UniProtKB/TrEMBL annotation:
Phylogenetic placement of the source organism: Eukaryota, Viridiplantae, Streptophyta, Embryophyta, Tracheophyta
Pfam families: LEA_2
InterPro entries (alphabetical): LEA_2, NDR1-like
Keyword flag Membrane: yes
Keywords: Membrane, Transmembrane, Transmembrane helix
One Gene Ontology cellular component: plasmodesma
Subcellular localization: Membrane
Cytoplasm found in the keyword field: no
Region entry Disordered, spans: 1-20
Transmembrane feature ranges: 48-67
Location of the Late embryogenesis abundant protein LEA-2 subgroup domain: 101-196
Stated name of the protein: Late embryogenesis abundant protein LEA-2 subgroup domain-containing protein
Membrane topology: Single-pass membrane protein
GO biological process, one term: defense response to other organism
Length: 229
Protein backbone atom coordinates (compact mmCIF):
# COMPACT_ATOMS: atom_id res chain seq x y z
CA UNK A 1 0.00 0.00 0.00
CA UNK A 2 1.46 3.31 -1.01
CA UNK A 3 2.71 5.61 1.78
CA UNK A 4 0.60 8.66 2.23
CA UNK A 5 2.17 12.05 1.46
CA UNK A 6 1.94 14.67 4.20
CA UNK A 7 -0.72 17.19 3.65
CA UNK A 8 0.68 20.52 2.47
CA UNK A 9 -0.81 23.73 3.74
CA UNK A 10 -0.15 26.56 1.38
CA UNK A 11 2.56 26.78 -1.23
CA UNK A 12 5.73 24.79 -0.99
CA UNK A 13 8.96 26.45 -2.12
CA UNK A 14 11.47 23.78 -1.39
CA UNK A 15 14.32 23.82 1.19
CA UNK A 16 15.63 27.25 2.48
CA UNK A 17 18.70 28.73 0.79
CA UNK A 18 21.61 29.38 3.20
CA UNK A 19 23.07 32.97 3.25
CA UNK A 20 26.25 33.57 1.22
CA UNK A 21 29.53 33.33 3.09
CA UNK A 22 31.07 36.67 4.26
CA UNK A 23 33.36 38.29 1.72
CA UNK A 24 36.95 38.87 2.75
CA UNK A 25 38.25 42.41 2.35
CA UNK A 26 41.62 42.72 0.73
CA UNK A 27 43.87 45.69 1.65
CA UNK A 28 46.40 47.02 -0.79
CA UNK A 29 49.72 48.12 0.74
CA UNK A 30 50.18 51.90 0.99
CA UNK A 31 46.48 52.75 1.05
CA UNK A 32 43.72 53.07 3.55
CA UNK A 33 44.27 53.14 7.27
CA UNK A 34 47.76 51.67 7.16
CA UNK A 35 49.49 55.11 7.52
CA UNK A 36 46.76 56.68 9.61
CA UNK A 37 48.67 56.64 12.87
CA UNK A 38 52.00 57.68 11.34
CA UNK A 39 50.41 60.44 9.27
CA UNK A 40 48.58 61.79 12.31
CA UNK A 41 51.75 61.84 14.40
CA UNK A 42 53.69 63.55 11.58
CA UNK A 43 50.97 66.16 11.16
CA UNK A 44 50.91 66.84 14.90
CA UNK A 45 54.70 67.16 15.00
CA UNK A 46 54.67 69.65 12.11
CA UNK A 47 52.01 71.73 13.85
CA UNK A 48 53.98 71.76 17.08
CA UNK A 49 57.19 72.82 15.32
CA UNK A 50 55.38 75.56 13.38
CA UNK A 51 53.72 76.85 16.55
CA UNK A 52 57.07 76.88 18.35
CA UNK A 53 58.72 78.84 15.51
CA UNK A 54 55.89 81.40 15.52
CA UNK A 55 56.08 81.83 19.32
CA UNK A 56 59.87 82.27 19.25
CA UNK A 57 59.62 84.77 16.39
CA UNK A 58 57.00 86.85 18.18
CA UNK A 59 58.99 86.76 21.41
CA UNK A 60 62.15 87.90 19.60
CA UNK A 61 60.25 90.72 17.88
CA UNK A 62 58.71 91.93 21.15
CA UNK A 63 62.11 91.66 22.88
CA UNK A 64 63.78 93.76 20.19
CA UNK A 65 61.01 96.38 20.18
CA UNK A 66 61.40 96.76 23.94
CA UNK A 67 65.17 96.94 24.11
CA UNK A 68 66.27 98.52 20.85
CA UNK A 69 67.44 102.08 21.45
CA UNK A 70 64.91 104.67 20.29
CA UNK A 71 67.91 106.77 19.31
CA UNK A 72 71.32 105.40 18.55
CA UNK A 73 74.19 106.20 20.86
CA UNK A 74 76.26 108.99 19.29
CA UNK A 75 80.04 109.25 19.14
CA UNK A 76 82.19 112.32 18.45
CA UNK A 77 85.96 112.81 18.50
CA UNK A 78 87.17 116.11 19.97
CA UNK A 79 90.24 117.74 21.44
CA UNK A 80 92.84 115.85 19.39
CA UNK A 81 96.57 116.08 20.01
CA UNK A 82 99.11 114.69 17.53
CA UNK A 83 102.66 115.59 18.57
CA UNK A 84 104.64 112.86 16.77
CA UNK A 85 104.01 111.00 13.53
CA UNK A 86 107.24 110.11 11.73
CA UNK A 87 108.75 107.16 9.93
CA UNK A 88 112.29 106.10 10.76
CA UNK A 89 114.76 104.62 8.27
CA UNK A 90 113.73 101.06 9.20
CA UNK A 91 110.01 101.66 8.47
CA UNK A 92 109.02 102.11 12.10
CA UNK A 93 106.26 104.64 12.64
CA UNK A 94 106.78 106.70 15.79
CA UNK A 95 103.55 108.26 17.02
CA UNK A 96 102.02 110.15 19.91
CA UNK A 97 98.29 110.67 19.51
CA UNK A 98 95.59 111.39 22.08
CA UNK A 99 91.97 112.50 21.84
CA UNK A 100 88.65 112.76 23.61
CA UNK A 101 85.81 110.50 22.43
CA UNK A 102 82.42 111.83 23.55
CA UNK A 103 79.64 109.24 23.87
CA UNK A 104 76.05 110.46 24.17
CA UNK A 105 73.16 108.21 25.20
CA UNK A 106 70.02 110.17 24.22
CA UNK A 107 67.49 107.59 25.44
CA UNK A 108 65.22 108.32 28.41
CA UNK A 109 64.65 104.75 29.62
CA UNK A 110 67.58 102.72 28.33
CA UNK A 111 71.02 102.49 29.95
CA UNK A 112 74.12 100.99 28.32
CA UNK A 113 76.78 98.71 29.79
CA UNK A 114 80.11 99.00 27.96
CA UNK A 115 81.68 95.69 28.97
CA UNK A 116 84.61 95.86 26.56
CA UNK A 117 86.15 98.82 24.72
CA UNK A 118 89.12 98.43 22.40
CA UNK A 119 90.34 101.52 20.52
CA UNK A 120 92.43 100.97 17.40
CA UNK A 121 94.34 103.49 15.28
CA UNK A 122 94.90 102.97 11.53
CA UNK A 123 96.97 104.75 8.93
CA UNK A 124 96.29 103.92 5.29
CA UNK A 125 94.36 100.78 6.32
CA UNK A 126 97.20 99.50 8.51
CA UNK A 127 96.73 99.29 12.26
CA UNK A 128 99.61 100.84 14.16
CA UNK A 129 98.26 100.87 17.72
CA UNK A 130 95.47 99.64 19.99
CA UNK A 131 94.50 100.30 23.61
CA UNK A 132 91.83 98.93 25.97
CA UNK A 133 89.70 101.40 27.88
CA UNK A 134 88.00 100.95 31.25
CA UNK A 135 84.48 99.41 31.06
CA UNK A 136 81.63 101.50 32.46
CA UNK A 137 77.85 101.92 32.69
CA UNK A 138 76.15 104.87 30.98
CA UNK A 139 72.82 106.00 32.35
CA UNK A 140 69.81 107.60 30.65
CA UNK A 141 70.43 110.82 28.70
CA UNK A 142 74.05 110.79 29.77
CA UNK A 143 77.28 112.01 28.16
CA UNK A 144 80.59 110.24 28.85
CA UNK A 145 84.05 111.22 27.63
CA UNK A 146 86.75 108.62 26.94
CA UNK A 147 90.42 109.54 26.56
CA UNK A 148 92.36 107.02 24.44
CA UNK A 149 96.11 107.62 24.09
CA UNK A 150 98.22 105.99 21.37
CA UNK A 151 101.95 106.28 21.94
CA UNK A 152 104.98 104.26 20.83
CA UNK A 153 106.35 102.85 17.59
CA UNK A 154 105.21 100.16 15.18
CA UNK A 155 106.54 98.60 11.99
CA UNK A 156 104.36 99.85 9.11
CA UNK A 157 105.29 98.93 5.54
CA UNK A 158 104.16 101.44 2.94
CA UNK A 159 104.17 100.88 -0.80
CA UNK A 160 105.13 103.50 -3.35
CA UNK A 161 101.63 105.06 -3.48
CA UNK A 162 101.26 105.07 0.31
CA UNK A 163 104.70 106.67 0.71
CA UNK A 164 103.74 109.41 -1.75
CA UNK A 165 100.53 110.05 0.21
CA UNK A 166 102.45 110.21 3.49
CA UNK A 167 104.95 112.72 2.08
CA UNK A 168 102.09 114.94 0.85
CA UNK A 169 100.38 114.82 4.22
CA UNK A 170 103.64 115.54 6.00
CA UNK A 171 104.06 118.63 3.87
CA UNK A 172 100.50 119.81 4.51
CA UNK A 173 100.68 118.97 8.21
CA UNK A 174 97.33 117.08 8.17
CA UNK A 175 97.23 113.29 8.45
CA UNK A 176 94.39 110.91 7.53
CA UNK A 177 94.08 108.65 10.57
CA UNK A 178 91.18 106.29 11.26
CA UNK A 179 90.05 105.49 14.79
CA UNK A 180 87.84 102.46 15.47
CA UNK A 181 86.21 101.30 18.69
CA UNK A 182 85.33 97.60 19.01
CA UNK A 183 82.67 97.26 21.68
CA UNK A 184 80.75 94.69 23.69
CA UNK A 185 77.65 96.32 25.11
CA UNK A 186 74.38 95.45 26.85
CA UNK A 187 71.20 97.49 27.12
CA UNK A 188 69.28 97.88 30.38
CA UNK A 189 65.59 98.70 30.82
CA UNK A 190 64.58 98.76 34.46
CA UNK A 191 65.96 95.56 35.99
CA UNK A 192 66.08 93.67 32.70
CA UNK A 193 69.32 93.41 30.70
CA UNK A 194 69.88 92.18 27.16
CA UNK A 195 72.52 89.83 25.88
CA UNK A 196 75.74 91.34 24.56
CA UNK A 197 75.97 93.13 21.22
CA UNK A 198 79.21 93.78 19.34
CA UNK A 199 78.90 97.09 17.49
CA UNK A 200 81.81 98.92 15.88
CA UNK A 201 82.44 102.66 15.83
CA UNK A 202 84.47 104.18 12.97
CA UNK A 203 85.90 107.69 12.66
CA UNK A 204 87.68 108.91 9.53
CA UNK A 205 89.73 111.83 10.83
CA UNK A 206 91.88 114.59 9.36
CA UNK A 207 94.26 115.37 12.22
CA UNK A 208 96.52 118.44 12.14
CA UNK A 209 100.03 117.87 13.40
CA UNK A 210 100.84 119.65 16.66
CA UNK A 211 97.73 121.84 16.48
CA UNK A 212 97.50 124.39 19.28
CA UNK A 213 93.68 124.33 19.59
CA UNK A 214 93.22 120.54 19.37
CA UNK A 215 90.63 120.78 16.59
CA UNK A 216 90.27 118.48 13.64
CA UNK A 217 90.63 119.72 10.09
CA UNK A 218 87.39 119.90 8.11
CA UNK A 219 85.03 121.59 10.56
CA UNK A 220 82.45 120.26 13.01
CA UNK A 221 81.13 117.51 10.71
CA UNK A 222 84.54 115.82 10.73
CA UNK A 223 84.13 114.91 14.42
CA UNK A 224 81.13 112.61 13.83
CA UNK A 225 81.64 108.85 13.87
CA UNK A 226 79.59 105.99 12.44
CA UNK A 227 78.22 103.28 14.71
CA UNK A 228 77.32 99.92 13.16
CA UNK A 229 75.29 97.41 15.23
Amino acid sequence: MAEKQPQLNGAYYGPSIPPPPPRHKYHRPGRGSGCGCCCWLLSLLCKLVLSLVVIIGLAALIFWLIFRPINKVKFHVTDVSLTEFNFTNNNNLRYNLSMDVTIRNPNKKIGVYYDRIEARAYYQDQRFSSVFLTPFYQGHKNTTVLHPVFQGQQLVLLGADETTTYNKEKTSGIYSIDIKLYLKIRFKLGKIKTNKFKPKMECDLKIPFNAADGRLAGGADSTKCKLDY
